[in-house]
Amino acid sequence: MDTTPQNALFHTLSAEQVASLLEVDLRDGLSDQQVAQRSAIYGANELREKRRTTLAEKFIAQFKDAMILILLAAAVIAGAIGEISDTVVILIIVILNATIGLIQEYRAERAVDALKRMTEPEARIRRGGHLQSIPSTQLVPGDVVSIEAGNVVTADLRLFEVADCELDEAALTGESFTVTKQEEQLDDAELPVGDRSNMAFKGTNVTRGRALGVVVATGHQTELGKIADLLKTSGTVLTPLQHRLERFGGKLAVAILIIAAVVFFAGLARGEEVMLMLLTAISLAVAAIPEALPAVVTISLAMGAQKMGKHNALMRRLPTVESLGSVTYICSDKTGTLTSNRMRVERIDADGTSINSLSEIDIGSEPWQWLGRLLALSTDVTLDEHDEPLGDPTDVALYLGALDGGIRKHDIETDFPRIAELAFDTSRRAMTTLHTIGDEVVAFTKGAPEAVIPCCTKQLHSTGDEAIDQQEILQQAEEMATEGYRVLALAMRRFPHLPDCITQECIETELVLLGLVGLIDPPRTEVPAAISACKTAGIKPVMITGDHPATASAIARRLDIASDIEVMKGSDIAALSEEEFADRVEEISVYARVSPEQKIAIVKALQKHGEFVAMTGDGVNDAPALKRATIGIGMGKKGTDVAREASDMVLLDDNFATIVHAVSEGRRIFDNIRKFIKYTMTSNAGEVWVLFLAPFIGLPLPLLPVQILWINLVTDGLPGLALSAEHREKGIMSRPPRRPEETIFSHGMWQHVVWVGLFIAALSLGAQAWAFHGGSDNWQTIVFTVLTFSQLMHVLAIRSEQESLFSIGLFSNPALIGAILLTVSLQMMIIYVPFFNEIFHTSPLSAHDLLLCMLLPLVVFVAVEMEKYAVRQGWIYN
After folding, report:
1. Cβ atoms 742, 857 nearer than 8 A
2. Are 212 and 160 spatial neighbours (Cβ–Cβ below 8 Å)?
3. Which of 457, 462, 538, 826 matches a 20 to 30 Å C-alpha distance to 91?
């Protein structure tokens, strides 16, 4: 036996061919010698892992970010000029960020571990002619495995003996219905996994019946294993915030070097001492680096994550909190995400009437009474300790459909006991139960319309039995199917006594049609509003499902996902080249019958167009796309461990509407990070302009190195951090997402940084010129204080991008007000406490000078408020 059989298309082979290929006797199973040989070839039936990087390697990798490298350089420079405290603070920030990144990476690696946990530990097999239980990791190709209701399938099996067996494959294929299994070979080699009815796949669940199968794939050769490989190779992408900060950090590093060089040589040209100018240039370089930025980003994201957690959105990776605000597409799995993952009777056509529920009609008339009894009695539903129905999803839906009409199975089955049945099988596509009702026996038959209707000779109406137009009823069933319903035909036949022959030929003939029932996995009630909110926010929703195209189209229409719905099937994607599909991907809003590989292809094609893609899902089949998407959103209740571990965010309530709140929060967080960058860069620009322009207007060096570092510490510290607590802007969910190519300085930020920085410098230098030429010995303390207080007025003014401070409320951010008051107090301390006068080279100001230092910065506040008025009017920054 070679190593190729696991790649064969086993669903196209007969059981005998499979047995011959795998060299196994299906009655006795493998011998011990065969098992030993195959174990050596195929190894354990588990998901192998590549070598993981060590914790030390992961930790070192966190220091490759451009901003982190700049901060490390700043720490070295600060230490070189004797500012050890700055060095310590910067290093603490860097190590904190590296630790957080390390934790995030460690949690992401647990996705593959979750896949391993899905494997059932025991398998019941035939070996050497005996039944035995072994650890599932010991299974090899050729093993004969027995499965029954309640089992998790432990390897990919080609079934060869099936007894009323159904499997729940929703986690693997996205199908909301259980799949009926059979043993006959299939001819189509291109059948998707969900349509291979003679196969059972690892990780799926047996919901009904039993079967025997021969193992045809183990470990990574299984469909589940292939998904595990996809999960490891699909890769991850940087979040929008990481992209922007990376670009920002690189440009800032170059700018800082240029600025420091210009200030240094300008001072030398003016005749200043070399050592003084060297220290000044280095201090300015340290001050120009917004070393609080990583801390502000981390704190903003952590606060946002905490707030989202209170709204049932658990953030697994902090950077994705912000990336939600940039999402342009949400690719959502249908089953269990957009829909309830619970079948429901939603349409009943009988007696010439179409209704949505039995509660809408008087079921006292004969057709409706019999139909209600059939829905209740022709099911295998049991109740748990909380009286919740358990069983096949279709049976549960029929049971609840009867309950809507007040007919409870367990109340009437005593009077109408089941005495015989014809179980469902795939050849008949129907099932029948026989019940005693009074002195007679009634057979209730339900099944596919094309199987049941040809067996009907009459149709029951309120007026009695009438002739049936089979073609008309079949057309009616077809129309219901095109609307996305799973259609069942319901019929009955009365017997004077239990027939001697309980067969299809004896029982399922001369039936009387009761009606048609349409079942569907309906949309979650809150989803339509969430879809509408996404559209308002400029986010395009896309449905990606493994379900039937008609069902996908029906659900998409109900949710108003798109005005013109075109469903693209997985086979359509497969027929297109990668370039052809990329050309069409932005036109499609609904995909059906797609494979896990195609889900990733959809995400990649959208990302190729520069879109930021979110992917929601709950099944194993969603995990690779969740990991590849800009942000993966898993389901907390019904989702698999695999999906949750592969995601960046988990919806604890499985509520699609939670995403809308999370997007709003993500946009707020990015706005606040932008405000901090606007604030700190403007402040730094003001300091740079003061030092740069002073010699050109005949003024001495305005600030000493220690004063520059102090301004940077007190103004970029607490006030900057407090900006992260700002509330969301008005209309935040009415604006389109930020485009990928948009820089962090867009929408007027760079213009603001330049002109406000110059304006602050002009006020500061004006105060210096007035004091210096007026003969004041305190001129350096005055320029020092004006510059500090101007930055505090600036932070008050930029709390909102457009709204006036008086509109949003002066005290609506108490943290910022407290930070400003603390900063003012600290500035007063270094002006009026003698000990600090010596350290910072300051001197006490007179009441007149102090008043000037406090009033002059108010002009900055007024100027920025005027700028925001112009923005509101649409005059600038459009």
Report:
1. no
2. yes
3. 826
Could you report the average pLDDT of every consecutive run of 10 residues in the chain (878 residues)?
58 94 94 94 78 74 64 71 65 66 54 42 85 89 89 90 88 77 92 91 84 93 80 56 66 78 84 76 69 63 76 78 84 82 92 94 89 94 83 90 93 92 85 93 96 96 94 95 91 95 93 96 88 91 87 90 86 94 95 86 93 82 82 78 75 80 86 88 88 84 80 77 87 83 82 96 96 94 97 96 93 94 95 91 94 96 97 90
| CA distances in angstroms from 508 to 420, 431, 512, 524, 783, listed in the order given | 13, 9, 10, 38, 99
Q: Is the pTM of this model over 0.70?
A: no
CB-side neighbour CA atoms (13 Å) of 499: 19
CA distance 27 to 7: 24
In the block, tokens 């209701």 appear at 149
d(Cα 530, Cα 659) in Å, to the nearest integer?
A: 8
C-beta contacts of 504-511 below 8 A and 24+ residues apart:
504/422, 504/428, 507/422, 507/432, 507/434, 507/443, 507/445, 508/422, 508/428, 508/430, 508/432, 508/443, 508/445, 508/452, 508/455, 509/455, 510/455, 510/457, 511/443, 511/445, 511/452, 511/455, 511/456, 511/457
Output the six-digit token pair for 834: 């003698």
Question: How many angstroms separate the Cα of 820 from the Cα of each of 706, 719, 814?
Answer: 21, 6, 10
Annotated catalytic residues are 333
Does the CA dihedral 71-72-78-83 come out positive or negative? positive
d(CA 79, CA 82): 5
Residue identified by tokens 């820089």 is: 743
